[in-house]
Structure formats: structure tokens, C-alpha cells
Specification:
The protein is an alpha+beta fold. The protein is built from 12 helices and 21 strands. The strands form 4 sheets. Strands 1-14-15-17-16-18-19-20-21 form a 9-stranded mixed sheet, with helices on both faces. Strands 6, 7, 10, 11, 12 and 13 form a 6-stranded antiparallel sheet that branches. Strands 4-5-9-8 form a 4-stranded antiparallel sheet. The longest helix is centred in the middle third of the chain and has 16 residues.
Length: 402
């Protein structure tokens, strides 16, 4: 069963539900968010307030609280920043100036985590992550992840019954501008979220659709279909009463046996491995490596961002012994094996070790290091950097240093 929904319709739906793909327009463009009530009967407050100098003021009405601190990657290099209370019981703090980007934050109120009550721009709880408030600090012009006056693709939602898991699931699919008016058979990227995400994460948080719209319009990336499944062995949200999945390792079977055949039947995508890529972040990066490196006959482009490789313990070399035993098979088939990680990420050392393991066994790869920790601020840039390489061997060779 197929449900096709335009990106605009999805944005409207998310806004109705209290989410939005873009933040409140004033706050996202250097102004103040609309004033809101910080609590029943409390004073009207503005939060977040983005100032012209790219500092940001956050406020919370909590007159009975004894301590409120700001947390999240908006604090940059500090785990927590204390807030001050005024005579009306409104707590506030100003941080920055900050680089243009999208930041996440929460308040810790007497030890209890709370979102910003008057900021409707949120990253909704998914997987093992709670809800986070967000704010966009603008640059001098549109950022690479912002909507521009260019042709836009569509984001569609497909509902399917997973034979591998025995539950109903959904997959989000980006189709490039002009898809419905062409007869082209497109290359396809299967893009996986992390442990703290779900199938909509790369759209509602990562803005993958806008990133690709802009790259395609500028002639920097080939038009492609992006398939974003739920990268865990579980039922999707909002499809019916919750059912459990007995096999917690069934995602690979679902991807190879259910999702890919459904996508190739439903969409005009190539079924050739040269035109099929697999990428993911964090836990999705680990799944990408586990599945992709074992199936070079399926995927000739593999991208792992901040991979959670080795997080569950065990000997990684033993876990990948079958892959390491035949480096020529990977080197012959893969156009790109691209691994990245932020230098402040707690997973940096394990990614560095895995890259060394691959290199020591003669498996060609490119390791991209960059400033940053385990957050979408890094992964948006990763997608923006790797998309132009996909399905373009010459670009991949030049830009990866292969």
C-alpha cells in the first residue's frame, strides 16, 4: 500500500502535530520567536531569541524552581550553563555568538529535563533519545540545508507489511524534482538513522530533502531517490496497537528482502549495484558497515557517519573476519567506502581503529575527520559532502583521495 505525500503536505502535518521542519521564522532568521506563556498565568516570554550578533537568549518561566541550567550542543564546549532568575520568576541565559547552524537544547529544572515550552521547533523523541528543543542561527544567506527558490522534490510515505518482522512499518522516500514528469530510472540511496531516530529523522531533523534539492539545482549531485527506513527491528509508530518483533536482528532481512524489492517495484529506481548506495549515521552507520561490506554485490557505495561500530562489545576483527578475509572482493566492487567521525565524538577512537583494521587488511577506504561531536550538525555536512560523490566514480575518486 502506497501513500504519496508532498514535502509541503508533510511539513503542514508536522506543524499541526507541534513539530515543524523549519523553526519559527523570526527565530530562525535572526529575530525573536513569537512571545508565549511560560506557564499558566505566567508572563509572556520570548524563547529562543536570536540576536543580530548570533548570540541566543533562552528563557523559561519557572518561579518555584531553585536551579535551572541549560544543556545540549548549544552550550558548545560546556556540558551545562547555569541560568539566572529575575523578579518575575523567569530564568534566562544568553550563549554565543554561535556559528550559523541548527542547535539543540533543553532545560534541567531542579534535576528534571524539560523542553522549551514556548518553542515549537523540536526534535521529537525517537529510539533511545528524548525530545529536544531546536533553534537555527542564520548565516549571511541561506545555508546549504535551508529551503531555496529552486525546484523541490517530494517526500512520500510508504506503508508495508514486513515479512521479515511480522509487523507493519513505514518508509519515507525522497523523489527528486521532476520525478513524476520523467521516465528516468534513478540511482537510489538507502539512508539510515541512528539509535535516537526513526524513519523521518533525516527529513525532519537532517533536512536531507532540502540538501539534495539545493545540490541538484546547483548541478553538484545527480538526481537520486533516497529511501529512509526504520532501521531497527520494530513496528513503526502510529500504525496500530504495538506489536513486538521477536528477532531483534531482523533489520538486514527486512532491508534486503522486503524494502529493496518493494522500492524497486514501486519506484523507477535502478536495480544495479552501481546505482545503489547504503549510508547511515551512528547505529545506522554500524548497520551500514555490517550489511554493506557483506553485500558488495548489492551496494557499490558505502558511507558510515559516526558509526557505532564496536559499541556493543566483542572483538570487531572477529566479527568482520569474513569481510577481512577477502579484501579483493570489496576493492573490486566498491566505488566508495567513506567513513567519517567528529573529532570530539565519543565514537572517534572506535572509528579510527576500524579504519586502521580495514587499511591493515588492504581494504581501500577514505576516513573523513571533522570538528564536532555526535550530532546532526556533523551529519548534515556529511550528507552535503558525500551526495555529489555518489553514482559518480570520477568525483568519488577525486574528492575521497582514493
Amino acid at each position: 500500500m502506497r501513500h504519496s505525500v508532498s514535502a509541503a503536505a508533510i511539513a503542514a502535518l508536522l506543524l499541526t502535530a507541534g513539530i515543524q521542519a523549519q523553526g519559527p521564522a523570526p527565530a530562525g532568521r535572526g529575530g525573536a520567536a513569537p512571545a508565549g506563556r511560560g506557564g499558566r498565568g505566567g508572563p509572556a516570554i520570548v524563547s529562543p531569541e536570536v540576536h543580530p550578533d548570533r548570540t541566543v537568549t533562552l528563557r523559561l518561566n519557572a518561579p518555584r524552581a531553585t536551579e535551572v541550567v541549560l544543556t545540549g550542543n548549544i552550550t558548545v564546549d560546556k556540558p551545562q550553563v547555569p541560568m539566572s532568575k529575575d523578579a518575575q520568576g523567569v530564568w534566562s541565559v544568553t550563549v554565543g555568538p554561535l556559528d550559523p547552524d541548527i542547535y539543540e537544547y533543553n532545560f534541567l529544572v531542579d534535576g528534571v529535563t524539560a523542553t522549551d515550552a514556548v518553542n515549537r521547533y523540536t526534535r521529537v523523541a525517537a529510539g533511545n533519545a528524548g525530545t529536544l528543543s531546536q533553534v537555527e542561527v542564520p548565516g549571511d544567506g541561506p545555508m546549504f540545508y535551508d529551503a531555496r527558490a529552486v525546484p523541490h522534490g517530494d517526500v512520500r510515505i510508504n506503508t508495508y507489511d514486513s515479512k521479515a518482522m511480522g509487523v507493519t512499518r513505514t518508509v519515507w522516500v525522497y523523489t527528486p524534482p521532476g520525478y513524476d514528469k520523467s521516465n528516468t530510472r534513478y540511482p537510489v540511496l538507502y539512508l539510515l538513522h541512528g539509535a535516537g531516530g526513526n524513519e523521518n529523522n533525516w527529513i525532519t531533523v537532517g533536512r536531507a530533502n532540502l540538501i539534495l534539492d539545493n545540490l541538484i539545482a546547483d548541478g553538484h549531485a545527480k538526481p537520486m531517490v533516497i529511501v529512509m527506513p526504520l532501521a531497527r527491528a520494530e513496528q513503526s509508530d502510529n500504525v496500530g496497537p504495538r506489536q513486538t518483533v521477536a528477532d531483534r536482528n531482523a533489520f538486514e532481512k527486512d532491508l534486503l528482502g522486503d524494502i529493496i524489492p518493494m522500492i524497486e517495484k514501486t519506484y523507477r529506481v535502478s536495480n544495479q549495484p552501481d546505482q545503489r548506495a547504503l549510508a547511515g549515521l551512528s547505529a545506522g552507520g554500524a548497520a551500514t558497515l555490517s550489511i554493506g561490506l557483506r553485500h558488495p554485490e548489492m551496494f557499490h557505495w558505502i558511507v558510515a557517519m559516526s558509526s557505532a561500530i564496536g559499541v556493543l562489545g566483542g572483538n570487531v576483527e572477529q566479527q568482520f573476519s569474513d569481510v577481512l578475509a577477502d579484501p579483493s572482493k570489496l576493492n573490486k566492487n566498491l566505488h566508495l567506502l567513506w567513513i567519517s567521525c567528529g573529532t570530539e565524538d565519543t565514537l572517534f577512537a572506535s572509528n579510527q581503529q576500524f579504519v586502521k583494521l580495514l587499511t591493515d587488511h588492504g581494504i581501500k577506504n577514505h576516513f573523513r575527520t571533522e570538528p564536532g561531536a555526535h550530532w546532526f550538525r556533523v551529519w548534515r555536512k556529511d550528507l552535503h559532502e558525500i551526495a555529489p560523490m555518489l553514482f559518480n566514480p570520477a568525483a568519488a575518486k577525486t574528492n575521497s583521495g582514493a
